[in-house]
Structure formats: structure tokens, C-alpha cells
Amino acid sequence: MQGRGVLAGLIALFALLLLLPAAVNRGVLQFPDTTTYIRGADAAVVAATGHSSAWSDDARRALAASSTAVAAPSPVADGEERAGATAAPAGGFPVVLSGRSVFYGALLYAGDFLGSFWWVAIVQALVTATAALLAARRVAGRLDSPERLWPVLAVAVVTSVGLQVALLMPDIFAPLAILATAQIALHWRAMGRGERAFWLLLLAAAALFHSGNLLVIGLLVGVLLLWRLGTRTALCLVPIALALLVGAGGEAAFGAAVRKMTGYSPVRPPFVAARLIADGPGRDYLDRACANGATLTLCQYRDSIPEDSDSFLWASGRGSFMGMPPEDRRRVAAEERAFVLAVLADRPLAVVGTSLRNIGGQLLRWQVDDIADARQGGINRAKLPPAVRAQFDTTRAAEGDFPSGYYNLLAAPVTLLALAALLALGAARRDAMPAAARGYVAIVLAGILLNAAVCGAFSKPHDRYQSRVIWLVPLLATAALAGARRRASAPAAAASGTAV
Fold first, then answer.
1. Residues 73, 305: contact at Cβ < 8 Å?
2. Angle 435-458/173-187 helices, nearest 10 degrees?
3. Which residues are within 8 A (CB) of 143 and not within 5 positions of it... i.e. 6 or more apart?
4. Of 118, 285, 375, 500, whose CB is crowded by the most CB atoms within 10 A?
5. Mind spelling out the 3-state secondary structure of 339-354?
6. Gap between the Cα atoms of 206 and 70, Å rounded
7. How much of the chain, in percent, has pLDDT values that exceed 90?
8. From residue 424, how far is each of 148, 420, 447, 483, 485 by CA, in Å?
9. CA atoms of 216 and 79, how far apart (whole Å)
10. By percentage, how much of the chain surpasses pLDDT 70?
11. pTM (2 decimals)?
């Protein structure tokens, strides 16, 4: 019981340290997509109950359009879709984008309903602190002496994890999903009911909150299956598969609800097509295919498609996905798979080469300016309700005055030192890092690599994508060092006790 009390105290202290960046900022951090998540949840509430809020302008317009439509049901508007998105042309049906989880939006909506987004940051801090210390306890092998885990608290101060906690985006759940996968795979049978419930619910939430987590954890399960076949290591993968099914089921339920309400399925932006076009192989193929009479919808826009993939996906001008009429957007999304396969068949080595370059670039991007400086993110203040806008304007991030240089300066040395410590412990005698701890470290590092692979190959490399997971390396290192110190001191204590 005493050990549980100490662990609870460490979790509370860790959570407070994680909230320091939000306190320094004078509020939570927002991103252009934040309002999209909230408006998606708000639209669901308006449609289901009729209750509206300060976020409900788009939802009310969509429902009004639906009530006056004759030929076909009008869809619920996609919220703002992305900062700068424009309304659908007359005669077109607005497009509901997938990939902005209504389930994470519900968490933000609940915080706003309670009167402050600080509630979201507090929840994310408590969940992160609990997951980090439970993971550290397993890596260190300190189930009976959690008081020795105090060095792990330094992770909240010397890494950018607190910024991820303060950010109103599902980013923090990407690293937590990796920890949950390692914890469940290696220690499911050794955990009590409460700890099992925590990790399973956390992994299911991460799968519901972002489809990227589904992909990363699905790939990680594939790696674990190969590991189990090759080494006969006992791994528990069924709970992980169940959590992934919850995530897939949530996406399916969202799609079914959108189809019922609008008559159209949600549309996933063509991330991979955008990446291939920006890298070159996709644009070369498009030029040749369109010149030879291909009927791809993109052929109508090939002379005006932006060079940058983000501009292609989110800008509102001609040639950009968001600037196309709704029906063209649906066709481009529907044609993406065939387009990607055709480009792969046309120039496979070029695609592999550019993908490896993007993955390598993504793996080494650990800065935080794109989330700590709201001016870089391009938040559309006009889309914020007055009360939210007034609070946002008081933050240091809105003024471009947040001290992100502190985290940028520490990112490389802290991460590299932590990685060196893990390698040194792994190369030392086996009692310095037991097999279970080595397996835990290997799974988490594989998850970090897969995060870079998915984000780098399927999207444009961004600092935000890798900085959200790289703090796991110092977490593992401090936990492993705490465990190594215990094992080193135990023989010494025994020797001194037997000396006469």
C-alpha cells in the first residue's frame, strides 16, 4: 500500500511538471486543426440533440441546407476542414473529411463545455504521467520500490513532452500508444486488473483519436509477430488487436453516420498522392499520363498543382485539393489508390529513394517551433469564438514569445546522450539490463522508427511528428539507469553484509 502511495505521489508531481509549459504560455497551445476537431464533435452534438454552442455556425448552416435540399440530402459541413478552407460552390455538396477524429474532438468539446481547455491539458498530463511512470517501473524492475524512480521526473523538464501535453491535438497519444503496445505485449499476464484496464483503454483511445496511430501500432504488431516467430518469445498480442479493432470500428461508425446524414462517405485527403507529386515521380507520371489521354481528375489541374505537398492538400487556390469543387475532391480521393500503384509501377526505385530520404529527414526532426509559435502554424483567429479568441490572444505562443529555444537547444544532446546510455547498457553484461527491459526498449525504439516511416513516407516531414515521440528515448534511458543502479548496489550491499 505504501508503494502505491509513493507511486501516486510521483504521478501527481510528474503531471504538475508536465503542465509547466502551459503555465509559461499562459494557456494551452492550439494548432490550426484544433478547431476542426472541436467543430466535428460540435456538429455531431447539434445533429443528435439540437444543442448548439459558440462553435456551431457551420453545423447550423449545414442543417439548414439539409432541410431545404430536394434532389439529395445536403451533408453536414466539414467544420472548417482546415484553416483557410472555402465554402463549396453552388450546386456542390460540402465534403466531410476523415482523419480528424470526432472522438478526440469530444474530449476538446468537453473541456470547452466545462469552461476551460485547461481541463484537457490536465487530463493529458495525468494520463501521460501515469503511463510514463508505469512504463519506467517495468523497465527499471522497481515494482516494489517506486520511490527510486524520481530521476524519471527529469524527463518532464529536459524534453518537450510538456509541450505535447499542452497542445490541443491528439499528438501525445502517439507515444503513449507505443508505450501501451510494449507494456501489453510483454507484461499483460503480470499486471493486475487495474493496470490492464488502464493500458487497454489508453491504447483503444489512441486508436480512436488518430488513424495514424492505427497504422503505426498495426505495423508494430506485425514486427512483434515476426519477433515471436523468430525467437519464440512469449508475447501477448490479443489485447492489442482488440484495441485496434476498437479504433477501426470507430472510424467505420463515423463513416456510417456521415453517410446516413449526408448521403456521402467521408473523404480522406490524398496524402500519399500529394507526397509522390511533391517528390517528383508522381508529377512526372501525371504529366506523361495526362498527355497520353488519361482520364484522371488531377489531369484537369496538373498545370496548377503546387510544388509543396501541404499547399496541394490545404491551400484554397486552383490546383489545390481544398480549392477543388466537392465532386472533384471526391473523385481525386477515390482515384488515389490507382494513381499511387501506377506511380510505383512506373518508377519504383525513385519512389523508394525519395521515401527513404523523407523517412531519414523525419527521424531527425525534433524541434518544436511549429507548435510553440502560433504564427508559424497559421491559426485562423477568425474561426475562434470570441471568448476562445480572447484567451488565445493572451498566450505567449500567439505573440511568438514562447521560449521554444530552450527545448530546441536540449533536444539533440539529451536524446543522443539517452540513446548512448541505452546502447551502453545493452552492450554491458546482461544483468545491467535484463531481457524484459531489453525487449521493452526494442519495442519502443521500433515504434519510434515506424512513426518516422509512416509520417515521412506518407506525409511531409514535420518537426511536430517526431518531437512528439522522441522524448520516449530519455524516458527509457532514465528508467534503465535507475534499474541498473539498483542491481549494481544489491551485490555490494550483500558483500558488505557478509564481511567480518
1. no
2. 140
3. 3, 137
4. 285
5. HHHHHHHHCHHHHHHH
6. 40
7. 69
8. 21, 6, 21, 14, 14
9. 27
10. 88
11. 0.89
Which among 430, 429, 418 is positioned nearest to 481, based on CA atoms? 418
| 126-139 per-position pLDDT tens digit | 999 999 999 999 99
Give the integer Cα–Cα distance in Å for 158 and 20.
Answer: 12
pLDDT at 441 over 60: yes
Angstrom distance (rounded) from CA 337 to CA 329 = 14
Residue 335, all three cell numbers? 482515384
At 97, is the secondary structure helix, strand, or coil?
strand
Q: Where are the alpha helices (DSSP H) in 30-153?
A: 34-49, 57-68, 102-113, 118-140
Q: Which of 4-18, 29-43, 51-65, 405-419 has the lowest mean pLDDT?
A: 51-65
Q: Which three cell numbers stand for residue 429?
A: 553484461
> Is residue 73 pLDDT above 50, yes or no?
no
pLDDT at 303 over 50: yes
Distance CA 237, CA 226 (A): 12
Q: How far apart are CA 228 and CA 249, in angstroms?
A: 27
In contact, 279 and 354? CB cutoff 8 Å:
yes
Residue 379 confidence class, pLDDT cut points 50, 70, 90: confident
| Radius of gyration over every alpha carbon of the chain, rounded to an integer in angstroms | 24
Place 2 in a pLDDT band, splitting at 50, 70 and 90. low
State the CB neighbour count (10 A cutoff) for residue 406: 16
Query: Taking Cα atoms as reference points, which of 360, 376, 358, 378 lies closest to residue 368?
Result: 376
Distance CA 286, CA 289 (A): 5
d(C-alpha 216, C-alpha 359), whole Å: 14
Predicted local distance difference test score (pLDDT) of residue 487: 54
Q: pLDDT-derived band of residue 305, with 50, 70 and 90 as boundaries?
A: very high
- C-alpha–C-alpha distance, residues 252 and 190, integer Å: 33
Are the C-beta atoms of 367 and 409 separated by less than 8 Å? no
168 φ/ψ angles, rounded to the nearest 5 degrees: -85, 65
State the DSSP string of 401-425. Answer: ---HHHHHHHHHHHHHHHHHHHHHH
* Residues 153 and 13 sit within 8 Å (Cβ to Cβ): yes
- Mention every residue, 6+ apart, whose C-beta is less than 8 A from residue 27: 117, 118, 391, 392, 394, 395
Distance, C-alpha 371 to centroid of its chain: 13
